[in-house]
C-alpha cells in the first residue's frame, strides 16, 4: 500500500475548500473548457528541474515534492503567461497536493508522463512485449491515482518518443494497449474522464503513420485510440519562416486531425538567445486552427542549454534573455481569437483503422495485444493505497527566493496571483515585480549567437524551506465521468 512521504498526508483533512480551475476536456480536435466550452490553447513549458537528480524514487524528491520550489517557479511561469506545464518523471508515492494546489491557484494545468527512465517503467522500444507486464502497469496506475483528483490535471502521456526508425515495428500496438488500459482504469476509478495521448518525435517519415495508427477507430478496442497527439519538434530555429521550418507541411498534414495536436516540445537553440519568433505562427492562423498550442523546452537551464532560467545552488533564480524574449512574444498573442470556439474542429470523427493507412515499416496489423489477467484485476479492483482527494487552499503567495534579470538587477515584489474560480492563466494576468530601477525587469532582446543542443530532460535540483499550504479539500472533484471520445 502506498504511504505518502509528505507532511500533507491525505489523512490530514481540514474543512476549508480552495478555488479550482475548470477541467479541460477533448471535443473533436480541440481542448475546451468543460463548463464554458471556450477553446483552450496550451501556452506552456516543459518542467523537470533536476532532471535525473530531481527524480529520486525512495527519497521523497521529484519535480512536485517541494512547495517552496513550486511556488517560486509557478510565480515566474504565471508572470510569463504560461497556462500548461509538462512533467516527465514523477514518484507516485509522494503526496503532490501542495504543489498541484499552487499551480491550480495560478491557473496552470499539468500534462504528465506516466513513465520514468528507470528499468521496467516505460515501454521497451526494442522488445515491447517484455515491458508490458503487471509491475509496469501497476506503477502507471499509481501515477493515475496520484493525480486524478486534481482539477488541473489536463492529461497523461502513455508514452514519449518510443516510435522511431530503430524501434520494433510492433511498438505502436503496445502503445495502444497501454493507452487502452490507462483509459479503462480512469473510467473505473476516476470521477471525471482525463484524456490520454502520445508524445511523438519529429521523425517525418513516420509521423503520419504514427498519428494514423494511434488515432484511428477500432471497433473491438475503442479505448485504445489516443485522445490527443503531441509532437516534439525543433524545426524552427532563430528567425526562420513558416515555410523554412516546415510548419506549412505540418498544418497540411494535420489539417484533418480528429484529436487535438500540439507541440509537446519546441524551441530550437541553434541560435542564442532564443527569440521564439515561432510563437507568432503557432498562435495565429492558419496554424492555430489546426494546432492547440505548444510547450517550450524547457524551464530550467541544463547542460543542453535549453533553459529559460538558471537555478542556482542557493535556490535563487537568474532569468535568461530567453525568458524575457518568450514573455515578449506571448504578450503579442491575440487572446480573444485564440480562445474562440472552432465549430469545424469539434465535428471531426476518427476514421476506421485500415492497413492501407500505414506506408512505412510500422506494423499495419491492428491486433492490439490482449490485456493480461493481472492487469484486468488491477483495473477491476484498483491498485490500493491512500491518495490525494483534491487541491488545497494556498495561503502564502510571496516570492521568497532571490530573482535577478539578465542585467543583474534583482526583481522585487514578485508574488503569485491567485486567480478566480474557474480561471486559467493567460499572458498579462500577473505583472508583479520591479527591478532595481523601478521598472518591470525586462530588457530588450540581445544579439544572438550560434549554438547547438539536443532534446533531453536533465538538470540540478533546488531545495529550500517549506511554504505553508492551507487545508486540503474534503472531497475529490465531482464533475462526473466524461465520455471517451
From TrEMBL:
GO MF terms held by the record: 1,3-beta-glucanosyltransferase activity
Enzyme class label: transferase
InterPro entries listed in its UniProt record: GH (IPR017853), Glucanosyltransferase (IPR004886)
UniProt record, GO biological process: fungal-type cell wall (1->3)-beta-D-glucan biosynthetic process; fungal-type cell wall organization
Subcellular location: Cell membrane
Principal subcellular localization: membrane
Topological relation to the membrane, as annotated: Lipid-anchor; GPI-anchor
Polar residues compositional bias, start-end: 424-434
Matches recorded under Gene3D superfamilies: Glycosidases (3.20.20.80)
PANTHER family: 1,3-BETA-GLUCANOSYLTRANSFERASE GAS1, 1,3-BETA-GLUCANOSYLTRANSFERASE GAS3-RELATED
Protein family: Belongs to the glycosyl hydrolase 72 family.
Name of this protein: 1,3-beta-glucanosyltransferase
Species name: Knufia fluminis
Gene (name only): GAS4
Amino acid at each position: 500500500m502506498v504511504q505518502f512521504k509528505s507532511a500533507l498526508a491525505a489523512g490530514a483533512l481540514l474543512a476549508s475548500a480552495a478555488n479550482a480551475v475548470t477541467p479541460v476536456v477533448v471535443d473533436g480536435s480541440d481542448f475546451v473548457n468543460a463548463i464554458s466550452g471556450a477553446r483552450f490553447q496550451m501556452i506552456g513549458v516543459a518542467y523537470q528541474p533536476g532532471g535525473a537528480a530531481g527524480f529520486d524514487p525512495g527519497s521523497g524528491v521529484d519535480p512536485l515534492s517541494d512547495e517552496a520550489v513550486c511556488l517560486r517557479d509557478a510565480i515566474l511561469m504565471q508572470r510569463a503567461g504560461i497556462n500548461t506545464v509538462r512533467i516527465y518523471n514523477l514518484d507516485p508515492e509522494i503526496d503532490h497536493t501542495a504543489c498541484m494546489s499552487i499551480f491550480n491557484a495560478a491557473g496552470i494545468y499539468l500534462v504528465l508522463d506516466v513513465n520514468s527512465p528507470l528499468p521496467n517503467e516505460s515501454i521497451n522500444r526494442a522488445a515491447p512485449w517484455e515491458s508490458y507486464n503487471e509491475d509496469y502497469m501497476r506503477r502507471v496506475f499509481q501515477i493515475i491515482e496520484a493525480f486524478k483528483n486534481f482539477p488541473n490535471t489536463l492529461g497523461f502521456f502513455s508514452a514519449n518518443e518510443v516510435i522511431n526508425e530503430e524501434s520494433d515495428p510492433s511498438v505502436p500496438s503496445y502503445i495502444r494497449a497501454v493507452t487502452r488500459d490507462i483509459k479503462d482504469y480512469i473510467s473505473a476509478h476516476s470521477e471525471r474522464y482525463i484524456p490520454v495521448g502520445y508524445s511523438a518525435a519529429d521523425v517525418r517519415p513516420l509521423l503520419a503513420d504514427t498519428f494514423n495508427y494511434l488515432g484511428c477507430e477500432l471497433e473491438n478496442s475503442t479505448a485504445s485510440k489516443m485522445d490527443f497527439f503531441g509532437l516534439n519538434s525543433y524545426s524552427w530555429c532563430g528567425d526562420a519562416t513558416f515555410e523554412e521550418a516546415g510548419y506549412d507541411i505540418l498544418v497540411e498534414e494535420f489539417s484533418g486531425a480528429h484529436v487535438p495536436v500540439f507541440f509537446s516540445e519546441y524551441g530550437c537553440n541553434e541560435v542564442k538567445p532564443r527569440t521564439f519568433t515561432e510563437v507568432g505562427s503557432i498562435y495565429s492562423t492558419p496554424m492555430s486552427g489546426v494546432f492547440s498550442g505548444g510547450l517550450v523546452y524547457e524551464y530550467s537551464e541544463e547542460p543542453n542549454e535549453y533553459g529559460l532560467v538558471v537555478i542556482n545552488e542557493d535556490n535563487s533564480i537568474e532569468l535568461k534573455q530567453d525568458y524575457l524574449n518568450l514573455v515578449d512574444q506571448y504578450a503579442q498573442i491575440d487572446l480573444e481569437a485564440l480562445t474562440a470556439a472552432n465549430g469545424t474542429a469539434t465535428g471531426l470523427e476518427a476514421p476506421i483503422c485500415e492497413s492501407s493507412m500505414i506506408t512505412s515499416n510500422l506494423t499495419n496489423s491492428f491486433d492490439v495485444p490482449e490485456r493480461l489477467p493481472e492487469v484486468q484485476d488491477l483495473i477491476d479492483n484498483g491498485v490500493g493505497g491512500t491518495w490525494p482527494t483534491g487541491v488545497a487552499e494556498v495561503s502564502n503567495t510571496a516570492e521568497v527566493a532571490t530573482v535577478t534579470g539578465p542585467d543583474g538587477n534583482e526583481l522585487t515584489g514578485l508574488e503569485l496571483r491567485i486567480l478566480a474560480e474557474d480561471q486559467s492563466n493567460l499572458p498579462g494576468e500577473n505583472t508583479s515585480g520591479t527591478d532595481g530601477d523601478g521598472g518591470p525587469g525586462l530588457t530588450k532582446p540581445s544579439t544572438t549567437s550560434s549554438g547547438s543542443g539536443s532534446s533531453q530532460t536533465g538538470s540540478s535540483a533546488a531545495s529550500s524551506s517549506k511554504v505553508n499550504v492551507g487545508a486540503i479539500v474534503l472531497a475529490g472533484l465531482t464533475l462526473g465521468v466524461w465520455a471517451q471520445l
